[in-house]
Known about the structure:
It is a single chain. The chain is built from five helices and four strands, in the order ααααβββαβ. By secondary structure, it is an alpha+beta fold. It has a single domain (10-144), classed as 3-Layer(aba) Sandwich (Aldehyde Dehydrogenase, Chain A, domain 1). The strands form two sheets. A two-stranded antiparallel ribbon has the order 1-2. A two-stranded parallel ribbon has the order 3-4. Strand 3 (113-117), helix 5 and strand 4 form a beta-alpha-beta unit. The model has no long low-confidence stretch (mean pLDDT 87).
Amino acid sequence: MITQVAEADAPDVDKAVAAARAAFDKGPWRKMSASQRGNLMNKLADLIEKHADELAQLEALDNGKPYHVARAADLPLTIACYRYYAAGRTRTMGRRFRERQLLHLHQHEPVGVVGQIIPWNFPLLMQAWKLGPALATGCTVVMKPQSRRH
């Protein structure tokens, strides 16, 4: 066992959502430009890269995969995912296109708190797949990781 964590009940989840909502409403994240958020997400990718050996060991312990698989696949893919979204793949500027005589405008903007659940088999990578677009767009997140009872 790596660690022990208390199981959340409904009031705990309500508190997490309320905290994420307050961070969304009053915090700086959604008000930042997409490029500012991208810079911070690149710093996160840099830190993951810096600690890749340690994180690969934790991935191996957490889900039972060989260390070398976590180090060669999970960590580089996680880093690449954060860099992908940091580069502006989810911009708030939107897009325009014409269809017949109509002009369609799509505005991508933060919508609030995003609830996300990740499975057990690729925790860091699945986390990046879910956090990347939400954070790049300016949303806040409440994430539920896998739960396994031993």
